[in-house]
Amino acid sequence: MSYALSRPSSSQRSSLLLIVVGLHVGIFLLVMAAKTVVPQIMELPMVVDLLPAPPTPEPPQAKPLPVVKAQPVRPKPAPKMPTPLLETTTSSEPAPAAPVAAPPEVKPAPPAPPAAPTVSQARFDADYLRNPAPPYPPLSRRMGEEGKVILRVSVTPQGTAEAVEIRTSSGSPRLDEAAQKTVHNWRFIAAKRGDVAVQSWVLVPIIFKLEQ
Fold first, then answer.
1. Tens place of pLDDT for every residue, the chain, 212 residues?
2. Which fold does the domain 119-208 belong to in CATH?
3. DSSP states along 38-66
């Protein structure tokens, strides 16, 4: 004898599922209700003890100050000053005359210093000196070199050239050397301080220029 089991329909399965879910929800609510304990608040009566207020200190009473009676000050009698005696005498001598101030002494003015002697410069351009012109170097003439050289000459009291220096070059060593050698043999008029010949420096310009 065999039994055939029939499958439940969809409506039956949905109703079974709802029943199972409802059981689970009910069990969960029961568990939560069992765990939840509502705390009870006990009301206690309030007890208040009243403490007596501290006594207020009395303010100190001011003691009256002793009264000092002022004694009247009696003025002391001023001491009697002796009255000075004036002795009057007569004199027949005349009163001395007021002193007369003496006139200040007038000092003579110091003599004026002597005038400084005049100084005359040394000269080289006098005609009677007959100083020759420097020769034109042949090489400078062929190369067409021209220029102006200024020499600084130390002139002795005897009128000779002690030293000849080149103050300004002409640009050509040959022209400078020719002028320096010639001027070293020139004669000069020495500088004078008053009537005395002194040594001095003088500038001598020399121009080298080719004739056209």
1. 444 445 557 777 777 888 888 888 888 787 676 554 444 444 444 544 445 555 666 655 655 555 545 566 666 655 554 333 333 333 444 545 555 555 667 677 777 777 777 878 888 887 888 899 999 999 999 999 999 999 999 999 999 999 999 999 999 999 999 999 999 999 999 999 988 999 999 999 999 998 86
2. TolA/TonB C-terminal domain (3.30.2420)
3. PPPPPPPPP--PPPPPPPPPPPPPPPPPP
